Amino acid sequence: MKEIKLHWQILIAMILAVYYGIFLKDEVIYVAWMGDIFLRALRMIIIPLILSSIISGVANIGSAENLGRLGLKTFFYYIMTSTIAILTGLVLVNVFQPGIGADLGLSQAVEGLSGSKEPIWETLKNIIPTNIFQAFVENRMLSVIFFAIVFGFFITQVKPKHSHIMKEFFNSFFEIMMKITLFIIKFTPLGIFGIVAKVVSEQEDLINLLMRMGMYMGVVVLALFIHAFITLPVILRFIGRINPFKYFKAVSTPLLTAFSTSSSNATLPLTMEAVEHNGGVSNKITSFTLPLGATINMDGTALYECVAAIFIAQAYGVELGLLEQFTIVVTALLASIGAAGIPMAGLIMITIILTAVGLPLEGVGLIIAVDRILDMFRTAINVWSDSCGAAVIAKSEGEKLKV
Description:
Layout: H1 6-23, H2 29-61, H3 64-96, H4 120-125, H5 132-137, H6 141-155, H7 160-185, H8 188-201, H9 206-212, H10 214-238, H11 244-250, H12 252-261, H13 264-278, H14 283-296, H15 299-315, H16 322-338, H17 345-356, H18 368-396
């Protein structure tokens, strides 16, 4: 009997989980543990996988000239796509104005947001860790990535004898982490079933919320779809000379997983495996661009933050001029860079934007009810953009892909 491909197993698991969550709410406790264990297993490997992959990738790039060229291309791509995503959301939210006449009665208290107003420049400064082991424990991904890039670069600067030993060590470390990753990936359908069933069972007023927040959700989803199915494919086709349909199929497994888990970091192992083995991108490119992208390239999150902030302003009857909207665009870009690749991270980061333009933080209560649903869409876009970036950069480096 022919084995069902992993992405079809995931899709089937998602459909079954929806029905289970709707019709067997009281029994969800018996399957939710599968999702919890799956996410714990993925989180277990995140730090060692990112550390080993980036150090290995940077060290194997070789010269400082190569690292500088690849790094410049990567950052340019991330800034470009995130900016386009934000502007797409900005245009649509101003055209459809979903917040006009919104029901402020939806507002509710949100615990933990009041302490999230760290200034943008403080976030950027904290990229440099004072204690790298503390950064490991606290899952501060930007700090971990910064340290890994510096460490990998200076491996290339020491004597050949020492450089060879360290390269071999981290290459071996990375290979072991990938073996562990591939083992965990085999249990993805079971984990997805437990996660989705639990999420669906908790949506008591889903229909009512969809009716009241439908316009806002529609604008966010439409903007995300434009970015995913027009902007990024155009970049793939005309800049990368890559068939977007074939490439989309090649990375369908991590996209479905990202949609289900709402975590680009948790999806990172699957993304790296799909882009490298299905897409044909070299390990040199994937080990540098994808871990970096999972942390700082958040197209979907940046787009959502822009739409959500202007929606809240419209709901409160606050008119935003060009200067305020420009502030939102810039702040959304910077905030998305600092957002962690975990569920609901975008909701926390939006408080920075609201503060930047003087909007009440209580406005978050307007969007929290439907945020979990939108989180699934925007996380999938984040991962799709990361995957496209790896392919485009690989082609620019002269690599031949499978798609």
